[in-house]
């Protein structure tokens, strides 16, 4: 029997039992849709995170107190501005070493107020991280050395406090202390669930005075090139450990952050996809079940086909194709449903989704394979039927 | 001329839950090209069992059976299927047409398993329906046809591959006598064209029209007669 003919016969058989075919497909449709949608969301989220981490600037090395290990408590920082100087000497360029002390503070302008993340920083922050100004200017070296009370507002904070008015030159209070606005940042949006537009940058010295401390929370170093990152990382941690023998310090690169986040997301996506895969498996069992019913119902037909010359293989192929057709049609419908679901999630929720061609190809391939695996037993049973017994069946 | 089918001491024993039921107990029979043979016998005497063997649907448990000169004992199920397709045409009491399929596609079915293309299949099926007098029923489905018409479709299907032997197991059993007569007349005209016809029947009158008659009882041929 020609393959084209076999397809036609299989399609006819499915058409003859339209409702049953559709219901049988449903299991595969839901399974494939779930796999496609979940993989899409996983891929989209991963892509967004990578973009954001890379958006911090390239060749970045973050230095924080304590050990970065699962289960270790965040350590109190013992670092001060003197350590920044020491690290800058190791790096050999003070413009490449940024320092931060952060604190959540209420910021007021007239009757309006906003909760913002106050970041005490050095004047080099915009070059170490990638931050662009919308208006005004950034902190200067003098602002930092003299502890001048000037502030650069995130786009969100600026809008909350001043609406459409130009905030440059206006007075605000941070934690009750007066500051003057000298600039605003470009809008950034969310990053890893943190609203990055509600930051307020002030000179690190002013922030330390406001908080009554000498400490800084962390360092960020922009390495001159990728090759030097690891070497720099060791040198910086060694320097800090030498200066504070009782404390631990950790340095992480962008790649490490990406790697860890990617691993977590990969596991998460894998687990979700596996759960979705189980429903695909259940769908396959349904297909197998219906095919066995179909073989039984059409025993006389099988007997007749054999009587007029169908070989066991012809009958087997016919039923196998029927199963594969069920699952692949289900697979295509499931892909459409999954893509739609992913796009809806992407459009209507903050969760991003990205549909990749490989995931669609995989879904299609898997649904075809499910058809083959779950169609083989019914097909073999049909092929092996004794024609005399089959013809006598009522 | 070689015989179309030669059975020598053929037996067929069914195994029913460990109990062996002998349905045929040593039957010898030769069917020559162009023969017209009627098999009669009481119910359960083994007529259908013999027909299934002669048509290569089943294999004997004893004796030798040659179909188209080939010993079926050495053939795989696939080879048996090919043999049936090439040399045998079956006509059943209950027609056995595919329900959702038109007369033409029912007739064309054996050609599907010969790997013949759709266009040629349809042309040959249409021609064959013409020969059984059903040119006006080509696109009808079985449930839109009378019993006699359905049996003619079945005969057209049996003939479409140009078989040398037509095996008909009570082909008129489900038909009224007038319709039965016309189906018989059709079989006889085909026989006149050279197709061997083997007919199982309960009707002595029908049997009497054949060139040879065989009477069966308890799995054995108890008498043979020529007209
Ligand atoms: N699959 C089977 N398993 C067990 N015994 C069977 C089987 N098929 C047929 N038989 C037995 O073999 C014997 C012959 O059956 P067969 O169908 O050949 O008779 P028949 O002559 O065609 O009868 P009828 O005129 O009623 O059609 C019967 O006794 C029957 O019970
Ligand atoms: Mg019988």
Topology:
The complex is a heterodimer of chains A (394) and B (227).
Chain A: H1 3-16, H2 18-55, E1 60-65, H3 81-91, E2 97-109, E3 112-121, H4 125-128, E4 133-136, H5 141-146, E5 150-153, H6 155-162, E6 171-174, E7 177-185, E8 190-191, E9 194-195, E10 199-203, H7 204-211, E11 218-222, H8 229-243, E12 249-253, H9 254-297, H10 299-307, H11 312-348, H12 357-384, H13 387-392
Parallel strand pairs in A: 3-10, 5-7
Antiparallel strand pairs in A: 1-11, 1-12, 2-3, 2-6, 2-11, 4-7, 5-10, 6-7, 8-9
Helix pairs in contact in A: 1-11, 2-9, 2-11, 2-12, 3-8, 9-11, 9-12, 11-12
Chain B: E1 5-16, E2 19-31, E3 36-41, H1 47-54, E4 62-67, E5 70-71, H2 77-87, E6 88-91, H3 103-112, H4 118-131, H5 147-159, E7 165-169, H6 177-192, E8 196-200, H7 204-208, E9 212-217, E10 220-226
Parallel strand pairs in B: 3-8, 3-9, 6-7, 7-8
Antiparallel strand pairs in B: 1-2, 1-4, 4-5, 9-10
Helix pairs in contact in B: 3-4, 3-5, 4-5, 5-6
The complex binds adenosine-5'-triphosphate (ATP) and magnesium ion.
Short characterization:
The complex is a heterodimer of chains A (394) and B (227). By secondary structure, chain A is an alpha+beta fold.
Keywords summarizing the entry:
heterodimer, A: 394 residues, six-stranded mixed barrel, two-stranded antiparallel sheet, 58% helix, B: 227 residues, Rossmann fold, 7 helices, globular, binds adenosine-5'-triphosphate
Query: How many strands in all of chain A?
Result: 12
**Which structural class do the helices and strands of chain B define?**
alpha/beta
Main sheet: strands, sense, barrel of chain A: 6 strands, mixed, barrel
Oligomer: heterodimer
Name the average pLDDT of chain B: 94
Radius of gyration of chain B: 17 Å
Determine the CATH topology of chain B: Rossmann fold
The CATH architecture designation of chain B is 3-Layer(aba) Sandwich
Apparent shape of chain B: globular
Helix content of chain B: 25-40%
- Content of β-strand of chain A: 15-25%
Q: Overall 3D geometry of chain A?
A: elongated
Helix content of chain A: 55-70%
Strand order of the largest sheet of chain B: 6-7-8-3-9-10
CA radius of gyration of chain A: 32 Å
For the record, the CATH class of chain B is Alpha Beta
Along the chain, the helix and strand elements of chain B come as EEEHEEHEHHHEHEHEE
Largest sheet of chain B: 6 strands, mixed
Strand order of the largest sheet of chain A: 2-3-10-5-7-6
